[in-house]
Amino acid sequence: MRERIAIVGVGQTYHKSKRPDVNDVEMINEAVNAALNDAQLHPKDIDAVVMGNIDFFEGRYLSDMWTVDGIGSYLKAGFKVHTGGTTGGTVANCGFFVAASGLFDVVLAVGYQKQDACDSRAALMTWSDPVWDRHIHKGAIGLHARRAALYMRASGAQEIHGAMVRVKEDKGACLNPYAHLKLNLTIEDVLNSPPLVYPLRRVHMCPTSCGACALVIATEKKAKKISRKPVWVKDWTEAHLEKAPVPGIGSPEEEVSINALETAATKLYRRNGITNPRKEIHLIEMYGPTSWSELQWLPELHICDLKDSWKLIEKGVTEIDGELPVNPSGGVVATNPIGASGTLRVAEAALQIRGDAGGHQVTREVDRALATAYGAGGWNVVVLLEKNL
Amino acid sequence: MAEKSLEQVKISIRVEIPYLWTAGKYLARLYNEIKENERFVANKCPKCGRILFPPRIVCGRCHVRASDEWIELGPRGTVKDYTIVYYSMKDPSTGKPRPEPYPHAVIVLDGGGLIQHYLEETDPEKLRVGMRVEPVFKPKSERVGHPTDIRYFRTVEE
Ligand SMILES: [Zn+2]
Q1: ipTM for the complex?
Q2: Which of A122, A219, A275, A374 stands the most exposed, by the fewest C-beta atoms within 10 Å?
Q3: A134 at the B interface (CB within 8 A)?
Q4: How far is the CA of A136 from the centre of ligand 1 (A)?
Q5: Domains of chain B, earliest start first
């Protein structure tokens, strides 16, 4: 029997492509301090720490050791996790595992990335298999372009729908003080943005950001003492894809689908008696590396059929004032400190439930929210947060 | 308070790390077939029956030892999908950018198995899903036993 747990503090840095004013430790500490302040706690109140980043980006492994000062993990229990693009989501999930174990009362989970340290695109290439296909690899951009093209063909979506999602994300980002790209985009701007790999244009693709995000997670008894508005972590699931001959797909039948996201969501819904996610989920912070991801993956989350996801953006359902807002923060397409991006999804969903999101607080009441994380490595994470225990 | 320029010190280092990877006996079989005979080979999962290409020791879905019976695939195949790359990307094996735009295709080999590769045909007007292609290999003297022994796939009329 696991402990019931809640998020009692969240903190994030502002995000930019370069942070020459701080080193990793200093940057991480901004998010950790913000989370501890939010929870009104002191580093001595933290019993265990889970942290993560893609350490190849900063070119220094043992990031757990190098960041002890910034996180405050000296002599504390915990570990570091790295699951590629999913890292930030896995950091959150591992924080939940540790807190739910009942062995610790208060757990700090920290994701970060300082992408100004190296050429991230070059570093990302190292996830491909050097023995099989690294020579032909197109990196994340090619993989997502391929998925978007397949999605368009399967669903009847047009280029304009990807543009509509991009404009919606930008509107959220412009209202979010912590977001990285705030572009005031129009549909025409998106459609005229330089093509990268068809149908992906430059503005469709997530940026490389510097930033960090921290969550304070506590067991039920502690959570009620610490916070007036604890956000309950009802459940969390994960599923992994297999090693694929062509990155992103395992076999001809897996076309648009990433499969593991669907598996993780189905398991989560079943365990929590959710039968109509479209109505029962009130908000989604989805880890979508491109503007097309939302259209491709809402069906994976059983929000709609594949052929209907572009109709949701046409009808404004997923807008900040819509019936089911998706990425009101601006999402990963606006802000992508990759090792923190999944943690940010959880943090943003928690703030929306609390009503503390600020400028990008959604119009509707949010009692139940989903946060997801994704990475090209194949691990998919889904988190269910609730206002009431 | 120090000058801003004094606070912002940056250290630039380029790291070169040599690696030596092992293909393993299943991939090695495929690579030797490419090098010696311009052929693609695969094995199968005895449980779910799917073709494992590139060949491997285990079916990751069924968790069973893959078969040691070898089947030949292709060398011809069908373009399953393709996309056009418009941005300059460094070829990780040469470090040099590839002239863009260029098509990048996923090809289903005859008999099964997917491979991603470049196409000889670069005119978007002449590309289509379902087009038939065949691999063009480097001359035998230049082949080393690696997928880079394939230059690209070219269109074939059948
Ligand atoms: Zn099998």
Answers
A1: 0.83
A2: A275
A3: yes
A4: 27
A5: 22-73 (no CATH), 74-158 (2.40.50.840)
